[in-house]
Design a protein that fits this description.
- This protein is mostly helical.
- The chain has one domain.
- It is 86% helix and 0% strand.
- The chain is built from 2 helices and no strands.
- Helix 1 runs antiparallel to helix 2.
- The mean pLDDT is 90.
């Protein structure tokens, strides 16, 4: 059960992170440069890093 949760967290974190980064970049392109857009990009990058962390836990978890 734990291994499946790691996998779901990794996929969800990756998808959410990519979407958030794209929205942040589009916000900078269409509007103007603001700290709000930069904060969205940082949050997206943190989400992707979380996905990588969960993926490593998934790969190292022993199958039960």
């Amino acid at each position: 059960m734990g291994k499946a949760i790691y996998f779901i967290n990794a996929i969800a974190g990756l998808i959410a992170g990519i979407i958030i980064v794209i929205v942040g970049i589009l916000s900078i392109i269409t509007k103007e440069f603001s700290i709000n857009s930069v904060s969205w990009i940082i949050i997206g990058i943190l989400s992707i890093l979380f996905a990588i962390y969960e993926w490593k836990k998934y790969r190292s978890a022993k199958k039960k």
